[in-house]
Every structure is written in C-alpha cells, then in structure tokens.
Amino acid sequence: MKRLLPAWLGLPRLDPVMLALLMLITSFGLLVLYSASGQDMAMVYRQAVRLGVGLLAMLVISQVPPRILRIWTPWLYGIGLILLLATWVLGVGRGSQRWLDLGLIRFQPSELMKLAVPMMVAWYLHPRILPPAWKAVVFTLAILLIPTVLIARQPDLGTALLVAASGMFTLYLAGLRWRILLGFAGVATAVAPVLWLMMREYQRDRVRTFLNPEADPLGDGWNIIQSKIAVGSGGLTGKGWLNGTQSHLEFIPERHTDFILAVLSEEFGLLGVTLLMLVYMLLVARGLHIARVARDTGSRLLAGSLSLTLFVYVLVNGGMVSGVLPVVGVPLPLISYGGTSVVTLLAGFGIMMSIYSHRTFIK
Amino acid sequence: MTTYRAEHAIKDQRNERHLFERRARTAFVIIVVCMLALLGRYVWLQVFSHESFVTRSENNRVSIRPVAPNRGLIYDRRGRVIAENRPAYRLEILPEKAGDITALLDELSELIELSEDDRKSFGKSRRRYRVFDSVPVKFNLSEQEVARFAVNRHRFDGADVVPYLSRYYPYGALLTHVVGYVGRLDDADIAHVDASNYWGTRMIGKVGIEQFQETELHGTSGFERVETNVSGRVLHVLERQDAIPGTDLILSIDVAVQQAAWDALGDRTGAVVAIDPHDGSVIALVSKPAYDPNMFVHGISRQAYNEILNTAARPLFNRALRGGYQPGSTIKPFIALAGLELGVVTAQTRVFSNGTFYIEGYSRPYRDWRDTGHGWVTIRSALEQSVNTYFYQLAVDLGIDRMHDYLTQFGFGLVTGIDVPGEGKGLLPSREWKRMAHAQPWYPGETVIAGIGQGFNLVTPLQLANAVATLVNGGNRYEPRLLYATKQAGDERAQRNIVPLALQVPKKNRRNWQVVIEGMDRVVNGPLGTARAIAVDSRYRVGGKTGTAQVYQLDANEEYKASEVAEHLRDHALFIAFAPVESPRIAIAVIVEHGGSGARVAAPIAQATLEAWLDQEVDLHIGQQIELEPGP
C-alpha cells in the first residue's frame, strides 16, 4: 500500500478488514447485552463507553510502529508484574484478589498480562535463532510462568491458563520442536494431580461440577444446567431477541458477563452462534494473515500468538457455556460485559493493526 | 544492542518464515477442527436435544400454583356471621430460592417481628412442604410490616408477603365450644386429608364444627399456571382454574339465646344446653369457662397456651359435651316414667315419706332432703317436691336392670351422636356393667341411690337436655344437630339439614307421659314446687326439675350444710326445664359446678335462656328463607 501523505497527516493506520469484523462483533455484542441486562440501557451505555475507550486505545497503539512497541515491552511486562504483586497486598474482590482499586477505575492487572506476556516472549525471541535453543526455552518459560503463578494464586485459574497459553503459543509459533511440546504436555498431565492438591476448594468444586453437573442440580451444577437449557431451548433460530425466557427470568447465571453466549444462543439459536463463530474465525484468520505478512520475527510471533489466544478465549467460553469445558471464568471476547477485558483485547488488535500497517516501512 | 545486531545477523529469515508458516497452518487446521467440534456441540444441544431442553426451559418458566378455596362461612340460625374470613397478609419463604434460610430470617426479622415460636414452627412446617412450595413463616402481619416488606422486597429473594383470608370469630369465647377454631395444618392433619385438595391450604379445622365439618367448609382447591422468575416471583398468570369455595354453614345455635345463657351463667363454671324438641336442633350450647378461639388461628404462643392449659377451671374442657356429672334429682322424671310405663306404679300409687328410708333387712338409712319427710305423696307430688323416699321405693321395685334398660332409651349412657367431635357418653350403671368394670356384684343400696341419680350415674349436659327434649316431644329421640342448613357456593338458598331420629321411644300409655310432664310442671308452678321461685316473674309456663349432684361423699349420718363446705366441695347445681309446658319449644339442661342449689342457682339460668328463645318470633321452619348477613 503506497501512502501519498506522511503518516501523521494522513488516514490513521488501521486494518479496515479487521476493523469491520470488530465493529460487527461489538455492535452485535451491545445488542445481546441489551437483552441480557434485562433491557438496562445504562449498562449498555457503560459498555459502549468502555468499547469507545478500547477503540481509542486500539487507534493510538496502531499508530505506533512495532519497533517502538517492542522497546516498551520490558517496561510493560515489569509494571504488570509489580501490579500483580500489588494485588497480593492490596487486592480487592469477592473470594479472590484480582482487582486493584485505583479510585476512579478498578483494574485487573492479570488482564494486562494477557498482552504483556506474549509481547515479552516475542520480544525475547525476536533476536534469537529459531527454533529456540534450550536456554531460550527455559528463559521463555520463566517469562510466562512467573505471572501465571502469580495470577493462579489470586486465584484466577482462567486468566492464568490464558496467559500461559499465550506464551506457549509464541513458543509453538517460534518452532519449538514437537517432541519438546509433547514433553511439556506429558509433564502437565503428570503435574495435574499436584495441581489438584494446590487448588482452592471452590476451584475443585468447579472441576467436580463440570465432571458431573447433574449430581447437585440445585447447587453448583445448577449454573451449567441452566446454561445448557438456555442453549438447547434456543434451537435452530432462537426464541428471538428479548424473548429468551431463561435469561429474562434470570435462570442464567452471570448472564451479561461470562454466560452471555447462553443468552445469545437462546435468543438467536444455532444460526446466531454459527454466524458469531464465523466472524471470530475470520478475525483469527485475519490475525494469522497479518502475522504471516509481518516483516520481523517479533511481530510475526506476537500477531500469531494474539490470534491464537483470541481463539482460545472463544473456544473456552463456548465450551463452558455449552457444558463441555469447566467453568473457569473466561469471558466471551468483545461481547461479555466488563471493562478491562474489552480494553486489553482491543489494544491487542491495535498491536496487530500496527504490525499490519507498518509492514512496508520496516527495514 | 550489540549482541542484538550480532545475533540478528545470523538469523535465517527465510527459514524462520517457512517454519512460522507451517506452524500457523497447522494451528489453523487445529483451530478449524476445534471450532467444528464446538459447533457440533451446539448442534447437538440446539437441534438434537432441542425438544428436551424446550421442555425443561418451560418447566423453569412456568410453575403450577395452588389456589386455595375460600373457607365456608358459618352463621347462626338467624343468619348472624359467627365465623368469617378477613383479608390478611402472611410472610412466606420459598426455600428453594432462599439460599441461607437462617440469614434470611435474621434479615427479615428487622422488618417483621419473628418470635422464637414463629421460627420453630417454620422449621417444623418446612419439612412438610416440598422444596418448591412456599412455606408460611408468619400469619396476620400488621399493616406496617406489610409496608416495610414491600419497600425492601428486592432484598429478599425467595421471601414474599402474600394476601390470604384469615379466619375470624367475631363472638370470640361465646361460641368457642361450638364452632371450635382453625389452626395451621400440621403433620397429623396431612395424614387424613386429600393432599391434592389441600396443597394450597394452610389452615384446617381443629376443634368443634370447624373440625367436624372440615370437608364441607374447605371447598375444592383450584390452580393457576404462572410464569415465575428465578427467585420464584410471579410475573404473569397464564391460566387459572378457580377454586370452589367451601359450603356456608348455618348452625342451629341462636346467638341471642347463647348469649343469654352465657350471661346468666356469669363467672360460674358450668354448662347450658338448649335443644328444640321439635327437631333436635341445638339452640344453645354453653360451656364455661371458655377461651378466645382467635388466639389459636395464627398459632398461639407457648406461654399463652400454657396459661390456658394450667387454669384450674380448664377452659379447654368442653363441659357441655364431655363433662360427666351425677344427674341427681334431674333423673327422677325418667325414673318416674319408667315406673309408670313398666306398670310398677300408677299415678295414684301413694308412698309415705317420713324423712328416712330403709331397705328391708338393712340398717343403713337413706334420707329425704327434708328431715321430717313429706308425708303421703303420689308420683306428681313426689316430682314436685323431689321426694327421695318415693324414688328409693320405685328404684327398689324397678330394680337396677329395668331402670338401666328403660333409661337407655332416652340416651343415657350413650353418645347422642351430635355433629361435633368429642362428646362423652356418661354412665348408666347396670348389674352387668358393674361386673365388667369393677368385677363386683351389684348391691341393693346402689339401686336405691340410683333412683335419685346418685352413685355411679353420670350424664353430660347434652345428654340431659336431649333426654328432656325426648321426654317432652313424646318420645322422639333425635341425634341432636348443630348444623341447621347448608348453602353451597353459587346456591341461592340454604338447604335444611335433616336431623336423624335415633330412636322412637315406645309408648305404652300417652297418659303416663302426661303425668310426668304434669309433675315437672308442678316443680315450677306447684305450691310446693322446688323451683317455684322462678315462676314468680316468668312470662312462660315452665316445667322443670331441680337436682344436686354430690361432689363430697357424706357419711350416712352426716348432714350436708352448704355453708360449711368449701366451694370446690360444694354440690353441683342442676336444673332441667322445658317451656311452654302446653307445647314445648325448648328443652334445657343447666349444670353449675359447685353451685349448691339447683333451684336457686341453676333454675334462673334456665329461665333466662328459655325466655331469650321464646321472646323471639316462632322459629324458622323448613324451606323458610334464612336472611344471611353479607360476608365481609
């Protein structure tokens, strides 16, 4: 793409395809949120403001060349770690310390790490020879395991797994040998019982409930059952917007946050779910395309890892709502109500757009 | 930065890109497979299991709730409301939605006063209801409590204040021993009601008419299909099948007469029963002391209940129905009739009373109430003056078994069959009874005193009144009835209740019956009648018979002086009466515990009662419209 005007004078550097897909998802998200919130316009308005902030962040970040972003990376990662440590001391939240209360806004440092960890891994691997040598692998693992452990301790298993996954995806895309990857998988399986012992009781309950939700249909399994009823009763075309009885009669738990997909499935049916998944797939595909055409190693790894992580979000949330994965508290990207996740996600897309729009000027 | 450049220099960019491309492609394939698997899950849920989930979602959304029928009202025979339904509010909890019940109750108690008793009975009843049924916590909330809850309702998932109709007894204690009361449905009740008809019912008749006529009063439960949200709040009613209200009952009790008897009894302990001899319907049934049934409707506190329970006079005890008293001289008219009908004596048979009676061959004296005796008496004057010697002789001549058999026909020793639960059956002794109950032979002396209604004899006030009714109506012994008429929901008119005839007492000679009635007439209207005092200001010609029942057993030679005996050992005072003599419209039995003299204490009570009845227009008859007061 030839630019006729200097960058600071011309149109902002954006990826129109990605932007279009994002607008499609977020506007659909607001529509679903209106229904899921019980037609609470104030809630929709608040979420729209957050989306606006996120889009602004995306716009700003996309103007910054990846080179500069890479320079910031260690700082961002360092600040993220410090904030994570701060939650240990100052954290607030129900049953877990996830939030930092900054007076004006409440903020989840773990969300920041979803961006900072893949950025840091990409930063670290950028100058190295790939596939990474043993020493590099060990360093990479250290980069991703420190925040993962801190987040898991909060405890926030879902985010910890996503953060770890984003780092692992970078390693995978960097060409880490399959047998090493399989070795990690083997170790993870071996470690699982130890992890079980380390888990908090409520986390164990979630796993137990996931394995057999019908065992306690009025207790913990209730959420999963109600969510499945919502999805199942939606059928092929759904009950129609604002007509979902499961959601409007408040049977769906967390219906405007983690379980918003259940509302969507109930009201828009299989058709709505499939279309949404298609858009997500297009976003992921677009992200991988951006990675493919990126001009340097770090950008390539980062864009690829962010795309794959986005997919994991969708997969885990979709699996959780339909009862095939445990309830780990992963929101449906860009649609679930909540500020931090929307802003970090859109910032991530900003990074990808920056990579895309600056590719011709690298070197 | 130097190392950076150095390492950068030896990176194989092309190879790296190829490596990345391979990895990304593999990843994308895995992604597509995962996504297809996920969508497969949604297809499974939304297409293949759709039907079953639609059903479950519908079950979530719609619940079926009972619509409790309105309980039938109860009127007296002149259409006054004596048990009504008043709008009230109760607090309910839906345990399924409530979460931590104890915490919820704690929070609620800031708005609505919840006593320890309320909590306990909630805990008890909770076990009885299904998890998705709401359980009542407190009935009859005050207006302030309802308002406070309404404002804070959003804070309490699973709790709700619901309107209902609360039973109210406007006459309070006056009719307690007739009407009884309703109370919370408990485990014992559940066992013998049709659960499907009672699923919305919270109250059930516990005592009296409320208990006996439960089936009539309750009505038929309806239901509604409602849409509820997750906290069980009803959002819409989708379909409704109305309940059929219970039948309204018109009792034969006349509140005015009941009140007159009540007032006349005053603070004394005792009972008054008045029966219409035409049809066996009960006009008044008073037992004192009584208690306010309204206390029991919403669950009486333990303290209040203990207070009632431990009162020496036992207000819970229904003396009119269950009290067993020695009939004393009130038995004499029946003994007299037995003597005449069985041909043992005639109206002209004369007996000489010198104050003391002996059985041949025994030395124990049996006394008249007048030391010097009454001289020569016939059956009429023996009744008039209550001459014991006449009846001692008659009893000996009849023998205990003939007495027993004859008196049985008047219902002594048998339940009357009245339409309220729990009546006693008294005791009419016989040779066989004594052998069975005491494994002892019958002694002649026991026959003698049986002739004046003492010894083993026990009657209930109801039995006595019914026996009088039978005597004065020519031998028709009815099963007395409190239920006068019923009015089913939607009916214009009330249907008269038929009073069944228990027995038609065989009559050998109509004259014999007339003689006894004349004797009883002379008790009040004769110059020497024991109750002649009440004739002075009586507007009606009254027949009757006085009686005293011994509480305190005297030695044979001791003399009874009321003034010297402590109140609780003083004789019970009895009086039976009917009026007007020429065509009796009311038969009465009065018992005043420790009242002493039947004539002085019990007779005026009977008089006040029968006048309250006779002062009114002639009673309504079958088919006549009863004007019912409009319900609340």
Task: Please give a handful of descriptors for the protein shown.
heterodimer; A: 363 residues; mainly alpha; two-stranded antiparallel ribbon; 13 helices; 2 strands; 69% helix; B: 632 residues; alpha+beta; Penicillin-binding protein 2a (Domain 2); Beta-lactamase; 7-stranded mixed sheet; 5-stranded antiparallel sheet; 24 helices; 23 strands; 37% helix; 19% strand; disordered N terminus
Could you characterize what this model shows?
The complex is a heterodimer of chains A (363) and B (632). Chain A has 363 residues and is mainly alpha-helical. Chain A has one domain. Helices cover 69% and strands 1% of the residues of chain A. Chain A has 13 helices and 2 strands. Chain A has helices at 16-36, 41-63, 66-90, 109-125, 134-153, 157-173, 178-198, 201-211, 221-234, 245-248, 260-293, 297-321, 339-357, and strands at 100-101, 106-107. In chain A, strands 1-2 form a two-stranded antiparallel ribbon. In chain A, a hairpin with a 4-residue loop joins strand 1 (100-101) and strand 2. In chain A, helix 1 (16-36) runs antiparallel to helix 11 (260-293), helix 3 packs across helix 5 (134-153) and helix 4 (109-125) runs antiparallel to helix 5 (134-153). The longest helix of chain A has 34 residues, at 260-293. Chain A is globular, with a radius of gyration of 21 Å. The model of chain A has no long low-confidence stretch (mean pLDDT 84). Chain B has 2 domains: 64-251, Penicillin-binding protein 2a (Domain 2); 255-305 and 319-614, Beta-lactamase. Residues 1-9 of chain B have low confidence and may be disordered. In chain B, a hairpin with a 7-residue loop joins strand 18 (483-487) and strand 19 (495-496). Chain B is elongated. Chain B contains 24 helices and 23 strands. Chain B is of the alpha+beta class. In chain B, helix 12 (255-265) packs antiparallel against helix 24, helix 16 packs antiparallel against helix 23 and helix 18 crosses helix 21 (444-450). In chain B, the strands form 7 sheets. In chain B, strands 2, 3, 4, 5, 10, 18 and 19 form a 7-stranded mixed β-sheet that branches. Chain B has a 5-stranded antiparallel β-sheet with strand order 12-11-23-22-21, sandwiched between helices. In chain B, 45% of the residues are buried. Chains A and B meet through helix 6, helix 9, helix 10, helix 11 and helix 12 of A and helix 1, helix 2 and helix 3 of B.
